[in-house]
Amino acid sequence: MMPARDMEDVTVGLVGLGTVGTGVARLLTENADRIARRAGKRVRWKWVAVRDPKKVRDVALDGIRMTTDPAEIIRDPEVSILVETMGGIDQAAEVVLAALDAGKHVVTANKAMLAERGREIFDRARKAHRAVAFEASVGGGIPIIQAIGVSLAANQVQSLAAILNGTCNYILTKMTLEGLSYARALQQAQELGYAEADPTLDVDGTDTAHKLVVLAQLAFGANVVTRDIARRGIDRLDLADLTYAGELGYAVKLLAVARLSDDGLDLRVAPTLVRKGTPMAEVRGPYNAVRVVGDAVGDVFFQGRGAGMMATASAVVGDLIDVVTGRALITSRVLDPWGDADRPIARTPSNKLRRRYYLRFIIADRPGVIAALTQVLGAHGISIASVIQHDTDDAPDGSPVPLVIMTHMAVESEVEAALEEIDRLDVAHAPSVLLAVED
Ligand code: NAP
Ligand code: HSE
To answer: What is the atom index within ligand 2 of the atom nearest the CA of 312?
Structure first.
């Protein structure tokens, strides 16, 4: 093999030197020889664009040109690959589109941009004969884009269930296993570099929905945008529900689910009960996991660090090597990730969705109340699998108490209708809580 120092160069510009950009910069500097051997060319990091050039950086910048204007990098004819780690949607998309127009290949970690403007970006890349590589956009260091897009390409994917947000999984783990408050756990996730610049996107489920858009596009050719995905985050979860779920033998995870059936494609993001002891329930901290069921392969499960500097940088630099070797361009052309869907896929109507549910009510503690509730549930064909009501001997008659019900398989539209009815009963003291169960 040719010594790395004698190899031809390929010149790279980096837009963004935050958590991910710093990790990329470190790998390019510290693992330069290894990267050159794998890529067959030396990767010469020439430029970096940042917002604030005065900020102290956590990586050596000797010989690197710094700018606050990404267009300066795009204008440099020596640069053939632009690595976008700036985040955001429209500004990042404009940078990426301009880079493609200028004949650069692009590597990006930006799922928000892809979820909202992926079609336009991949159209432009196709016209420009350039690659857009995006492994780091979903699952951090887990090579899930390569797995679904290439390695499992022989399959019709039937379903995906995934933990796709490291921040939320970190928060849920810290709250349930270490008793940390939500606010403290979120602060730690931010300090560790897991959270988005605006962490609301993490905790309200939007970041997970962005990633589900990318996976649904790859796995099903489903032309969806973020607003098409029913989503709830962990920001309004009550600690009591984590505790009751634990008593029932379940962990609560922010789960992204995509399921194809004869009735259509169901896509959703929500805090979901997963049975303890299953691989999904045991995914902890900033780790992500993706369970894919394909018609040929059956069930495959991927797990790894889903957020953070070096795990994400590993995926970005892996993509960079793929671009340098030419593999990414071939994959991009053949895979055509945002190409037209083979056939339009209808969304599954809620009267065709069947799953088990966790329900929590705050009801008046007096005779006949549980009977009134179960009568409503029964009228909607909802059968009860188990119930938790703790002893409240000390409480005065009629005071509000929690009642938790785990259902058998039930139709979603019926469950929603039943809860609306129950919430109108005068014995209901607070809106009921509904969480899906993924067995
Ligand atoms: P970050 O820490 O906020 O870094 C953003 C970087 O971009 C900063 O260096 C910032 O400059 C620079 N920047 C922002 N706007 C710019 C502009 N208009 N012109 C030039 N530079 C600009 O974000 P991050 O966590 O690294 O995330 C970056 C991207 O990777 C996002 O799309 C994110 O969703 C994605 N991602 C993040 C992770 C993770 O674990 N953090 C994992 C996977 C994917 P200053 O430093 O001067 O402010
Ligand atoms: N904020 C994201 C997360 C970064 O916590 O998963 C990785 O995409």
So the answer is: 7
